[in-house]
Structures are given as C-alpha cells and as structure tokens.
Design brief:
By secondary structure, the protein is mainly beta. The chain is about 10% helix and about 30% strand. The strands form two sheets. A five-stranded mixed β-sheet has the order 1-2-4-3-5, with no helix packed on it. Strands 6-7-8-9 form a four-stranded antiparallel β-sheet, with no helix packed on it. It starts with 12 loop residues before the first strand and ends in a 14-residue tail after the last helix.
Length: about 160
C-alpha cells in the first residue's frame, strides 16, 4: 500500500510471483484480489506482471483498469488452461514478456520459450488496449479436476510421459 501511494513515473506496474487472475491450472487468487485489489484500483495500477502459471496470458478483467500479464517462462512443462472465456489471450506454453515503455504507451509482447511472438498489445495512458497481434488461445481442459489435482489431462502424473 505504501509503495503504490508513493509518487511514481508515468506508468505504475506491480510484479509478483502469484497471479491475481489466471485462466491456467492455478486459477484466480481470491486472497490477492481481496488484499491487493482495492489498493490496485485506488492507485490505478497499469500493469500487473506475474509468473506462477506455466503459461502465457493477457487478461483484461471487467471492472479492473489494470492489464494482467502472466509469463511463466521458468517451467519445463506448460500447464493446461482451466478457463478459456477470458482474454484476450491465454496459451498453454512457457515463455516470456518483453516490455517497452514510452511516455505515451506501453508495448507488451508475449514470446514463447522457442522465441515465437504469439501475442502483442499496446496500452495508452488512458488505459485503451490495442491488440496488434493475437494468435489463437487454447481451449479449456476437459478434465479440470484432474489438472487441479496435479495430474495431466489424461490422468497421469505431470511429467510422467516426458
């Protein structure tokens, strides 16, 4: 709370390990929504960047002015999507986010671990989002309970067939 209320540069970005909103196997984090949510809204955080999910995601959530980016690049194995109705982008691949800030806009690129650009968007100072590249998002798993329990979609232990 103290950090968010300090004078800051043109853009206000928060970074943490856990996602607040996520379409992937870990889902949303109600504790962070409750404890950080109102503070993020008051401070008008522009971008929240996290990992935790072994996926690439860009989520714009109704009622939130913050853009949410998940870039789980450190995993050996991607995790399936539990949800597919939120976006504009979520893909079950590991990768990274490349961020570029100017006084007028931020540019966010989501890049797979293999180096392929799969999603890009710009955000202006008023919060307007312009998606400049969007490849198809993944569909939600058909076995969500198995995925939440830590198994792959077919019921085996994650990584057992690797």
């Amino acid at each position: 709370k103290d950090e968010l209320n300090k004078p800051h540069a043109t853009w206000l970005m928060a970074c943490a390990h856990h996602d607040i909103f996520g379409n992937g196997s870990h889902g949303d984090n109600g504790v962070l929504m409750t404890t950080w949510g109102e503070e993020f809204k008051k401070a008008r955080v522009d971008l929240y960047l996290c990992g935790h999910e072994h996926t690439l995601q860009h989520l714009e959530i109704p009622g939130w002015s913050t853009s949410f980016v998940v870039a789980g690049g450190g995993a050996a194995m991607a995790e399936p999507m539990l949800r597919d109705q939120r976006g504009p982008f979520s893909r079950s691949v590991t990768g990274f986010a490349a961020l570029d800030f100017t006084p007028e806009k931020m540019d966010v690129k989501l890049i797979t671990a293999e180096g392929k650009l799969v999603h890009e968007f710009n955000r202006d100072r008023d919060g307007k989002i312009d998606v400049t590249l969007n490849t198809p998002s993944d569909k939600a798993t058909t076995n969500p309970v198995r995925v939440i329990q830590g198994f792959d979609e077919k019921g085996g232990a994650k990584g057992a067939n690797d």
